[in-house]
Amino acid sequence: MNGVHDLGGMHGFGPVAPEQNEPVFHSDWEKRVFAMTLTAMGRRVCNVDEFRRTIEQMPPAAYLAASYYEKWLHAVEALLVEKGVATREEIAAGHAAAPGTARTTAALGNGGGVESFDSSAVKLRSDKRYRPRFKVGDRVVARNFNPEHHTRLPRYARGRRGVVRYDHGVFVFPDTHAHGKGARPQHVYTVEFEAKELWGADRNERAPVFLDCWDDYLERARTAAGKPATKAHAAKPAMRSRSRSRAAAGKGRKR
Amino acid sequence: MSDAHDHHDGPDHHNAPLSEPAQRVKALEQLLIEKGLVSPQALDELIDTYERHIGPRNGARVVARVWTDPAYRKRLLASAAHAIEELGFPPGPQGEHMMALENTPRVHHLVVCTLCSCYPWSVLGLPPVWYKSTAYRASAVNDPRGLLKGFGLDVGDKEVRVWDSSSEMRYFVIPERPAGTEHLTEDELADLVTRDSMIGTGLPKSPAGNARGAGKSR
Q1: What is the pLDDT of residues B186-204, one digit of tens each?
Q2: What is the CATH architecture assignment of B54-199?
Q3: Are the C-beta atoms of A147 and A158 separated by less than 8 Å?
Q4: In the prediction, which pLDDT does A254 show?
Q5: Residues A153-172, buried b or exposed e (16+ Cβ, 10 A)?
Q6: Which ipTM was obtained for this model?
Q7: What are the residue ranges spanned by the domains of chain B?
Q8: Which 3 state secondary structure label does DSSP give A51?
Q9: Any residues with CB less than 8 A from the CB of B45 and at least 6 apart, and which?
Q10: pTM given for the model
Q11: Which residues in chain B are closer than 8 Å to A45, comparing Cβ atoms?
């Protein structure tokens, strides 16, 4: 969706203001909502794409006014209701209407540490082989679309031309996964977009953006004659060590 | 919210009214305990993990190893999550699909997430507030040099590559090893590696102890 969360390239937010000696959390409630959200996702209350989608659906003014963990709190409350784990009334009351009625009834493990996470519950990369539509070096165009659904293709890149630099293998597709419409696994590539392509001809500096794009976000770039563009120049020296993609080598990572 | 009352409480905040999110979170935890979805002890452990065990110090160990062990560097660039786990740092959430970006004399990398706040937790811990701010997310992609100047960092005529973390891949920067550090041990090198140098908004500290690029203690 063309939401206010899609901030890349916007002006007017002022300078970045780092806090000296910043603590990991700024209050106890931030700690609790952080840990509850991770636990809820680990127990499959929702997936991370649904979580992001719910934050993006906040009204724009509320989104901009909310702190990071206030957004998390909003999303976890909303998703507990959406998924039928709790009702609005229960959340307001802080008590279960009928104890033990959660749809997610997995027994609680002993530890909450990272090691105890069931990573399969949040697995977003697929080991299965899917055919990539593009290969490293291909010239591509990011789709120009304006969907009302969740997407991870930011506005600043839509319709812009770039070059595929990496193929990271197969991941679930957030545009459908965020809406309960299936995983639609497909390749994810890093695409390099030049600054002048994104921001205009007067931006002739070497400050390209490397953006991760799902297969469905990309189309093959065409030349003026309507033929597919030829392969772009080879990857630059600094990237050579990674130019051979895992996926191209046919090796899904073992998990 | 409760500012007017807080002045009277001194160090004892038990009687201070809870701020609105604090009240909601307290209610939510009680509810989820009753639902059998969370346990307070497990939440405590998770919080402790991110407050004390997972943070930029982990990433600094990775960088120091890269600087001192060419074979490790190769493994990290080929398969970052595995190489990070070698040092005892499990992937965990937001660390499963990793890629290390190595700065060179000609290229400086900068990491951002314009759409939310994706961040490589396994090596850097949880992101600072400025990384999640609208200002950073808005400006990093279209004015990276101006943004770096705000951090006191001038990368000269280097190419600046901005990595917008729009997928589940997580990126972190391997900064260049500072000059004059040939005699330092791996532990001493790790002490030079700042969080910001692994995001790309800073450089490692110099061996004299002065942070370059206003990285200071960050």
Answers
A1: 999 999 999 999 999 999 9
A2: Alpha-Beta Complex (3.90)
A3: no
A4: 38
A5: bbbbbbebbbbbbbbbbbbb
A6: 0.89
A7: 18-53, 54-199
A8: helix
A9: A111, A112, A113
A10: 0.87
A11: 37
